[in-house]
């Protein structure tokens, strides 16, 4: 069986571990069910390796400084109805009190 390349670093040396695929080079883990979605388009995982889809609710896991503002996005902030986009900041959302912004998936966890 040929295993998929790592969605994080592109390594071809991935292996199967239970219900997940694991990359030995960057230690990224993702569920095997993500493979069906990967063939169809964009695959985005949260900080814990859970697959994210449009419309999910996520929680911020780290205090984040907001560019152009003196305020900080606090840990534990819930973000509803996310939209996945291509690029470095792969989550597009609206946050109460901050407005529209983009987040990196590595700083959120799925609820």
From TrEMBL:
<protein>
    <submittedName>
        <fullName>Alkylphosphonate utilization protein</fullName>
    </submittedName>
</protein>
<dbReference type="InterPro" id="IPR004624">
    <property type="entry name" value="YjdM"/>
</dbReference>
<comment type="similarity">
    <text>Belongs to the YjdM family.</text>
</comment>
<dbReference type="InterPro" id="IPR013988">
    <property type="entry name" value="YjdM_C"/>
</dbReference>
<dbReference type="Pfam" id="PF08274">
    <property type="entry name" value="Zn_Ribbon_YjdM"/>
</dbReference>
<dbReference type="InterPro" id="IPR013987">
    <property type="entry name" value="YjdM_N"/>
</dbReference>
<dbReference type="Pfam" id="PF03831">
    <property type="entry name" value="YjdM"/>
</dbReference>
<feature type="domain" description="Protein YjdM C-terminal">
    <location>
        <begin position="45"/>
        <end position="111"/>
    </location>
</feature>
<feature type="domain" description="Protein YjdM N-terminal">
    <location>
        <begin position="3"/>
        <end position="31"/>
    </location>
</feature>
